Amino acid sequence: MKAKELDRKFDEGEDISSYLDITKARRPGQEQKRVNVDFPLWMITSLLRRFRRN
Do residues 16 and 6 lie in contact, with contact meaning Cβ atoms separated by under 8 Å? Predict the structure, then answer.
């Protein structure tokens, strides 16, 4: 399928997911990186209290 046809289908609201290979899809600038951060106990306790209220 040519790009123009895919664009037309998308613009018309058709489901184009079957035409896409998302197995290696990435969101530029949205990559995740694990970091370790130490917080004081009072801050964690405060965050937990706020979390439980919602």
Answer: yes
Calculate Rg over the CA atoms of the chain: 22
Mean pLDDT of all residues in the chain?
Answer: 92
Q: Which DSSP state fits 39?
A: -
Task: Look up residue 49 and give its amino acid.
Answer: R
Between the CA of residue 2 and those of 7, 9, 10, 11, what are the distances in Å? 9, 11, 13, 14
Helix, strand, coil percentages for the chain (3-state, nearest 5): 45, 0, 55
- pTM value is 0.44
